[in-house]
Write a sequence for this structure.
């Protein structure tokens, strides 16, 4: 198992938009929790006007341009295409996707890696809805909305995982390339479509409990339009998968 751990290398793709206040801390925490792991961080910034890219360039001076890669785009083009863009520059055999707003704490990364090595899983995904998982910082309405959304998706789609909308995941690179090539969603629904299509393809998926923490700095990108988009995406996946 130790030999396998040494052979595995990881590309961590972090899409950003106006995350100047968070990106330095998230990068620091990744390095703190992956001391004995071969990895690179790929920041895909969608033209943030708040100076996110300038902060990443400063981080490159600290950690090295080969360890922290800035792969910017001119404007917001959707989450799915951000991961595709990051994949073009990824050089490792495993890919982690995570948010930059500290809702996905890097302390869970060793658990993801350990679970993958122990089980040989194609995908390891974080979940808020098993023992040991949870949410911190959401009001009751937000918690109920998320839980109902997942229950509805479970009932209609039977994906075999407990948390479809959680976007903290570890993929075998080839699996991510295969799954992402079949997805059509661009925004909030993208993560759900990814895991549903992976399940339909028969990929081995494991879960790790995580506590999702609502962002401390910056503004949330979740709102009523995302709920409508989610319902439309659910209907689409029900018909096409």
């Amino acid at each position: 198992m130790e030999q396998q751990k040494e052979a595995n290398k990881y590309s961590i793709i972090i899409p950003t938009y106006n995350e100047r206040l968070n990106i330095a801390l998230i990068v620091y925490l990744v390095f703190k929790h992956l001391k004995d792991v071969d990895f690179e961080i790929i920041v895909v910034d969608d033209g943030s006007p708040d100076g996110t890219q300038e902060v990443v360039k400063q981080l490159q001076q600290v950690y090295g341009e080969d360890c922290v890669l800035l792969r910017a785009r001119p404007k917001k083009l959707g989450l799915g295409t951000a991961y595709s863009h990051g994949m073009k520059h990824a050089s490792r055999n495993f890919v982690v996707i995570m948010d930059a707003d500290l809702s996905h704490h890097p302390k869970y990364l060793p658990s993801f890696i350990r679970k993958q090595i122990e089980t040989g899983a194609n995908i390891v995904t974080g979940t808020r809805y098993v023992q040991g998982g949870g949410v911190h910082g959401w009001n009751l309405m937000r918690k109920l909305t998320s839980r109902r959304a997942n229950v509805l998706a479970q009932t209609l789609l039977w994906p075999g995982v407990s948390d479809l909308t959680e976007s903290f995941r570890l993929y075998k690179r080839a699996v991510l390339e295969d799954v992402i090539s079949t997805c059509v969603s661009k925004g909030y629904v993208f993560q759900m479509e990814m895991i549903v299509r992976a399940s339909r393809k028969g990929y081995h998926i494991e879960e790790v409990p995580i506590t999702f923490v609502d962002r401390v700095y910056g503004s949330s990108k979740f709102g009523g339009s995302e709920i409508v988009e989610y319902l439309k995406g659910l209907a689409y996946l029900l018909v096409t998968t």
